[in-house]
Every structure is written in structure tokens, then in C-alpha cells.
Amino acid sequence: MNTQTRASFLFLRLAMGFLFLYAGLSKVTNPDWSAAGFLNGAKTLAPLFHWFALPSNIGWVNALNEWGLTLLGASLIFGICVRLSSKLGIVLMLLYYIPGLDGLYPNTHAFVVDEHIIYIAVLALFASFRVGRFWGFDGWWVERLGEPVAPAWYRILG
């Protein structure tokens, strides 16, 4: 991959990283924030999302949401375990996308594809092209220490 392509991936990785970091920190620093309203308004798979919103579950659901976004952002910014965090980010974005579906329509301002699908596509590119290796900690790891000895876990972590 040439330098211009790597630089483009770096720019996109940093932009997405700051987007997710801000989204996470805005939730972490707001003591009144809760996912309960969003989850209770689910149209698709409503029983599952209503279960997430139960008082006995909402604490860990909020924590996973807040810290998942924050850590995903930090991972992308620093290029640490980008492949793994991108895959987990795809799951998180699906959990944002699915509850809002009303047939084929995700919301009032989109037709099939909304911002969550775009995030999923970009995160899938990050995982596929191992963009953490382009000016990130993942690349430093491979340069200094070589490919990890345990290829099974490395295929996941990236």
C-alpha cells in the first residue's frame, strides 16, 4: 500500500477515533445520561432491547455503551488493537441501528443506510486492512517484535 493510501487511512482512523471518543466521553461525563429511553423505544427486537432497559440491567448496559465508545475512540486514535476494536465497534453500531428499524427504514432521515451503516462500513475496512499498522501502536508492535507467535489470537487482535 502506498504512502498516500496509508495517510488517507490514518486521517480516516483519527477522524473516526475522535468521533467515537467524543461520543463516549459525553456520556461518561453526564451523570444523567442513560440508554433506557432509546432502548424502550425499540421497534425491532423490542423484547430484547426492553430487557436491556430493565432497571436490573441498565447499569451494565450504560457502562458498556459509555466505555465501549470511549475505548473504541482511543483505540482508533492510538492505533492499538484496531482490528479487535473495529469488530467490537461493528457490534455496537448494529446495536444502535437495529432498534430504530421500522421495516426497511432506519429512521426519518434515511432510507436503509443511515450513519450507523457508514460507521460499520468504515470499521469493516479498518479491520480488513489492519489500519492500526499505519502509524499506530499495532505497527510499532510488528516492527519491533515481529509477527506474534500465536497466530490464532493475532488474527483476532490484529
From TrEMBL:
<protein>
    <recommendedName>
        <fullName>DoxX family protein</fullName>
    </recommendedName>
</protein>
<dbReference type="InterPro" id="IPR032808">
    <property type="entry name" value="DoxX"/>
</dbReference>
<feature type="transmembrane region" description="Helical">
    <location>
        <begin position="117"/>
        <end position="135"/>
    </location>
</feature>
<dbReference type="GO" id="GO:0016020">
    <property type="term" value="C:membrane"/>
</dbReference>
<keyword id="KW-0472">Membrane</keyword>
<keyword id="KW-0812">Transmembrane</keyword>
<feature type="transmembrane region" description="Helical">
    <location>
        <begin position="7"/>
        <end position="25"/>
    </location>
</feature>
<keyword id="KW-1133">Transmembrane helix</keyword>
<dbReference type="Pfam" id="PF07681">
    <property type="entry name" value="DoxX"/>
</dbReference>
